[in-house]
Amino acid sequence: MNVAISTRQSDFVTELESHVKTMYRAVALYPESAFHFEMGRTMAERLGYDPRDLDRIPAASIESFAGVGYHFALADLQKNQFVVDLGSGSGMDTFIASNKVGHGGSVVGIDMTDEQRNKASYLRDSGGFCNVSYKKAYIEDTGLPGGLYHTVISNGVVNLAADKPAVFKEAYRLLRSGGRLALSDIVTEKALPERITCDATLWAACIGGAMQQDEYIAEIEKAGFRVVAVRDNTEYHFISGGATWATETYGVKSISLLAVKD
Ligand SMILES: C[S@@+](CC[C@H](N)C(=O)[O-])C[C@H]1O[C@@H](n2cnc3c(N)ncnc32)[C@H](O)[C@@H]1O
Predict the structure, then answer these.
(1) Which one of 61, 65, 127, 151 has the minimum C-beta count within 10 Å?
(2) pTM beyond cutoff 0.90
(3) Cα angle at 109 between 107 and 114, to 5 degrees?
(4) For the chain, first and last CA: distance in Å?
């Protein structure tokens, strides 16, 4: 019986991965299409991105920006720091981080979707962002060296992961002592019913996989972090009818969070 349950679970995880890759392939290649969520520069500015930072990075990375908050206010990146972006998409946050840490620092973007990484790599090469690299990996197991990085950032991604505790443990492993985890993500105020959590399309739209906020924070603390700030991103809204309904019914919302590895 346990074997049957775990086979069902792993079938669902495989289905999820396929849905997530399909959705974010489209985000990279066809950003002008209709999605459950808003993308692009207008939203980035509404979330708090500084227009001067956006002017200094490739416009095509901004068109495919599918983040949910402005975690840079909490990350407080400094020159010469080493940064990992979990779920780097088409690269917008990696380019902003690149400019903040300068030539003495570096930024590694992790993403499992080839088209996202390919687009980000092309934009990196044509824009001369020499301190940025990308790696194909799962955010649950990046394969990067442990204890090296000053900051781990992530924007709109952890909700998509089937094993969130593994993501937080990986972020903790990557950071050096005193390192910061600054993320923006989707959480809920009430637990989502199974018909939503088992809907792979709603999962890929950053809704079905959202965890209840208190459990989400508890998992970050269980990984070893001290959570020092949590902010609601009230400027973030889903746009499709189904997504808006879930938002209103279950308190699906965006937060930004800072946690420290002491
Ligand atoms: C909502 S998009 C956000 C991308 C980027 N952070 C941004 O702000 O535009 C989510 C990204 O995370 C990637 N992703 C989702 N789950 C992942 C996982 N388990 N491992 C690696 N990448 C993942 C997807 O391929 C996609 O590019």
Answers:
(1) 127
(2) yes
(3) 150
(4) 42
Query: How is the chain split into domains, by residue range?
Result: 2-260
> Distance from the CA of 132 to the center of ligand 1, in angstroms?
17
Ligand 1 midpoint to CA 147 (Å): 23
Q: What is the pLDDT along the chain (262 residues), one digit of tens a residue?
A: 344 556 667 888 899 999 999 999 999 999 999 888 889 999 999 999 999 999 999 999 999 999 999 999 999 999 999 999 999 999 999 999 999 999 999 999 999 999 999 999 999 999 999 999 999 999 999 999 999 999 999 999 999 999 999 999 999 999 999 999 999 999 999 989 888 888 888 888 788 899 999 999 999 999 999 999 999 999 998 887 777 887 889 999 999 999 999 9
- Output phi, psi for 205, to 5 deg: -85, 15
CATH topology of domain 2-260: Rossmann fold (3.40.50)
Pocket of ligand 1 (CB under 6 A): 20, 24, 65-67, 87-89, 92-93, 110-113, 116, 138-140, 155-157, 160-161, 206
CA of 116, closest atom in ligand 1: 27
